[in-house]
Amino acid sequence: MSSMTTTDNKAFLNELARLVGSSHLLTDPAKTARYRKGFRSGQGDALAVVFPGSLLELWRGAESLRHRRQNYSDAGRQYRPDRRIDAKR
Predict the structure, then answer these.
(1) Contact between residue 61 and residue 82 where contact means Cβ atoms under 8 Å apart
(2) How many domains does the chain have?
(3) Global pTM value
(4) N or C: which end of the chain has fewer CB within 10 A?
């Protein structure tokens, strides 16, 4: 889970909702569970699951995360603030 404070989390989630629309943002742990568990093994925590509607929305969301120095996973790849992208295999 992120090390951001609750206030920062709310502000960040509001920003994501503004970028992609609240209907494309899941924050309820029960609704995000299937996206946080690997097909064969592994699972983790997530503040939110985002479904961007365009490449521009994806880029803006990724930039927002990068500015906050937060990790994110995108279709099996892990992005880290030091700009490495590690394939999860």
Answers:
(1) no
(2) 1
(3) 0.63
(4) C
Paired tokens of 49: 């699951």
User: Which residue type sits at 28?
Assistant: D
| 3 CB-near residues (< 8 Å, 6+ apart) | none
* C-alpha–C-alpha distance, residues 87 and 76, integer Å: 6
Alpha-carbon distance values, 5 to 10, 12, 56, 64, 73 (Å)? 9, 10, 27, 16, 21
For residue 23, being part of any structural domain is answered with yes
Alpha-carbon distance 85 to 52, whole Å?
Answer: 19
In the chain, the N- to C-terminal Cα span, in Å, equals 21
Which residue type sits at 1?
M
Any domain includes 28:
yes
Contact between residue 33 and residue 56 where contact means Cβ atoms under 8 Å apart: no
Which amino acid does the sequence have at 5? Answer: T
